[in-house]
Amino acid sequence: MSLSVEIVPTTIYEGQKPGTSGLRKKVKVFTQPHYTENFVQAILEANGAALVGSTLVVGGDGRFYCKEAAELIVRLSAANGVSKLLVGQNGILSTPAVSSLIRHNKALGGIVLTASHNPGGPENDFGIKFNCENGGPAPDAFTNHIYKITTEIKQYKLVRNLQIDVSKVGVTSYDIAGKPFTVEVIDSVANYVRHMEEIFDFAKLKDFVSGKSTGKPLKMRIDAMNGVTGSYVREIFLNRLGASEASVVHTTPLPDFGGLHPDPNLTYAKDLVDTVAQGDYDIGAAFDGDGDRNMIIGNKAFFVTPSDSLAVIAHYLEAIPYFQKNGVQGFARSMPTASAVDLVGKKLGKEVFEVPTGWKYFGNLMDAGRLCLCGEESFGTGSNHIREKDGIWAVLAWISVMQHTGKGIEDILKQHWSIYGRNYFTRYDYEECASDPCNEMVALMEKTITAADFVGKSYSSGGKTYVVKEADNFSYTDPVDKSVATKQGLRIVFADGSRIVVRLSGTGSSGATVRLYIDSYEKENVLGQASVMLKPLIDIALEISQLPKFTGRNAPTVIT
Predict the structure, then answer these.
(1) Does residue 116 have an active-site annotation?
(2) DSSP per residue, 513-555
(3) What SS3 state is found at 245?
(4) For residues 509 and 487, is the Cβ–Cβ distance under 8 A?
(5) What does DSSP say about strands 558-559 and 422-433: parallel, antiparallel, or unpaired?
(6) In terms of CB atoms within 10 Å, which of 131, 389, 405, 502 comes out highest?
(7) Interior angle at CA 227, CA 222 and CA 230, nearest 5
(8) Which strand (E) or helix (H) includes residue 375?
(9) What does the H/E/C string look like for 380-436?
(10) Among candidates 134, 2, 140, 125, which has minimal Cα distance to 65?
(11) What is the per-residue pLDDT for 34?
(12) Mean pLDDT of the chain
């Protein structure tokens, strides 16, 4: 039976402008009549003529409204000329798995249903983003095109009577107005696990995890935080690497993440930190809702900053078979990320790129063969195996480094600092602040730091003096396509390499989030207490930015 395409009149919703990684709003916003349909139609239309006859991947992090949205996307895609959809079972796919599937199947792209590390549930957040044919988040030009369509949309196309059950794995074929349309509901985990087996030496890691090669099993605590990674964690760490059931927790994806805030940091992964702090574990790790972010801690909850994690993996890439086979190209980090990896790149003679926040800025460099490893201070680490950050990949990389060196995490870090020095790093998040005063604060600070007499100024606090070397509102010209991104964050760089960065974040769903980043470099004093070592530069940053005055806050919401 042939199914017909319906043209549905709609009205424009303001504010459907994607942020650094898609559109994120409250569930109640997405479930308004025509709201989700408008945005998905805009994504589809933005692909132009390439959409007809194409293959797309659809999946998300399992949060509330994920399954319903996936089924709606099937009906919209069918009406817009898509030939085939690969849909994760129950609408579930981790963000790294979507990227991998796009690349392995040479798909036109993927629609990812996630609000990443934001809370889930009917009262909380939902999100939709589009990944392009390279598997990475859509670049600015594409998301701007999506937004433009949302401001002009008058109708969308829908196959209302198409029946689909995404809970059952299998292939279903349809006739849509005389044209074939196929939906393949796939095992959410299988392709990604095969991909990890190609990158890492699972046999060697299994011997290490089981204790066969060392005489002592690796004691790990892997917390999936009731997000999408649960199924992947169980298959990889339990079934493939032979870890014990007690090694993994919160591995059932839940629509509200079981009340957890699926953001892998010291604040929201407190249960993991407290458990590992008791001293019974060699490594602890947590992932966010959609599986692209990770946190690594060592014995007694020794914290590895994301900046240090990136630098250590860069130093030990020979421990990972993928890089032995494919070689080591350049490294990159987001601008707010501490510059620890820069020092590794310099020592190894590799290019190092500093890009705006947003994983999409790494993709061009990877596609051009100039980048193989990158990271963000917001707990994102990844390589050119896909075009997304990848939480499980990062943990497998760390276990590979531990196996390669025979050392624990704390000793690996201390040895690294003895070679390169240490970038003490922290991030202060002031969440859901009033937007107008925050915009005023940024404008005033930009005027201050870009004044002609600012460079060369010295600031002193706690017995330390910092001299300004350069300061700007960071802009970036892509070395590959020459596209320009401006106003990416206020940046003060001091003569010793220490830095202060202030940004307004684009990933929240309401209000403004102000992020203050402190990167304090020490060549010799590498074993100090981070909070003590960072305090002088924090005090200077609060003085220059006047952050407490404009936010009305005496303390940040989250300290990382």
Answers:
(1) yes
(2) EEEEEEEEEESS--SS-HHHHHHHHHHHHHHHH-HHHHH--SS
(3) helix
(4) no
(5) antiparallel
(6) 131
(7) 50
(8) strand 371-376
(9) EEEECCCCCCCHHHHHHHHHHHHHHHCCCHHHHHHHHHHHHCEEEEEEEEEEEECHH
(10) 125
(11) 98
(12) 95
Q: Sorting pLDDT into bands at 50, 70 and 90, what band is 1?
A: confident
- Please report, for residues 187, 208, 312, 369, the alpha-carbon distance to residue 325 in angstroms, rounded to integers and kept in the order given: 29, 22, 20, 14
What per-residue confidence (pLDDT) applies to 557? 86
Q: Check if the beta carbon of residue 227 is closer than 8 Å to that of residue 290.
A: yes
- Token readout for 191 is 């392709």
pTM of the predicted protein model: 0.94
Please tell me the least confidently modeled range out of 309-313, 457-461, 546-550.
546-550
Contact 502, 516 (CB under 8 A): yes
Q: What's the pLDDT tens digit per position in 80-103?
A: 999 999 999 999 999 999 999 999
SS3 category, 294: strand
> How many alpha carbons fall within 13 Å on the CB side of residue 151?
9
215 contacts: CB under 8 Å, gap ≥ 6: none
Other CB atoms within a 10 A radius of the CB of residue 280 amount to 11
Rg, Å, the chain Cα set: 23
Regarding beta strands 109-113 and 55-60, do their DSSP bridges make them parallel or antiparallel, or are they unpaired? parallel
d(CA 155, CA 12): 9
Catalytic pick among 100, 116, 188, 334: 116
In angstroms, the Cα distances linking 507 to 127, 212, 256, 390 are 10, 44, 19, 18
- At 506 the pLDDT is 54
Token pair in block for residue 12: 């424009």
* Higher per-residue confidence, 506 vs 245: 245
Q: Which two tokens stand for residue 480?
A: 């590959």
Q: What is the Cα–Cα distance from 217 to 497, expressed in whole angstroms?
A: 41
Cβ atoms of residues 291 and 396 within 8 Å: no
**Which has the closest alpha carbon to 519: 551, 560, 557?**
560
Q: Is the pLDDT assigned to residue 333 strictly greater than 90?
A: yes
User: What distance lies between CA 419 and its chain's CA centroid?
Assistant: 29
Tell me what percent of the chain is helix, strand and coil, each rounded to the nearest 5. Answer: 35, 25, 35
- Which three-class secondary structure state does DSSP give residue 300? helix
pLDDT of residue 331: 98
pLDDT value of residue 116? 86
